[in-house]
Amino acid sequence: GLQDDISRDVKSLDPGSLAKAVALAKLFEEKYSTNLKQKNYSTPTRNNSPYTQKPYQNSQKNDSPTKSPLPALLPTPSTKPFNNRNSNIKKLSPAEIQLRRDKGLCYFCDDKFSPSHKCPNRQFLMLQVEDTEESDAELTDNTETDNTGWSEDTHHLSLNAMGGSNGLGTIRFTGQIGSIRVHILVDGGSSDNFIQPRVAQTLKMDIEPAPNLKVLVGNGQMMTAEGKIQQLPLLVQGQEIKVKEDNQPLMLNYTI
Question: Positions of the region Disordered (predicted)?
């Protein structure tokens, strides 16, 4: 019998006689045989061998020595032990601090101190805090030791002397003298207290004369005090401030 493909194609043409059917069958048989040969020719041969072809490798050994790894781009910095004490820092005793304060000298050099003073020996210090694990008992012992009081070697340092900047470094408070509300300026570089004459006159305070008393202000100008006040009732944020007898306010006509 005919193949299924050939029989289907012959039936689709509906030959009227047996001779036509045979002729059509031969034509379709030649057609399919020709297509089958072309298909087999173009299909690559399948390799059924279990061994796969390995890529070519150069078996020649490299006789050159192995290269050592390249050095780092930047050398490793040398670690130097941290020195807790700086030999360039001079420790002043309380007597030396008081002597320089009385003479109006800078704490770090022998020049006169002023708000615009730039100390050539000023230093910038860094405080390094290390995290340490301590027990509660050790912390309690340290707290009890710290509460015993300040030692006699405690140093006092002026804000302006430490900063060495051009700024005045003042702090402003709002206070009250009697029934008048006033502005109070606290300057770390000042050595005396001053009050405007109009405030003292308005409150009718007892003013003592202060002849030939010169005051050097921050801009270098020399001014004359108009008097001295023995007692000054000063109230700041609900707290009464008592001025010492050796640092009584001077009447100085200046503008804030």
Answer: 35-94
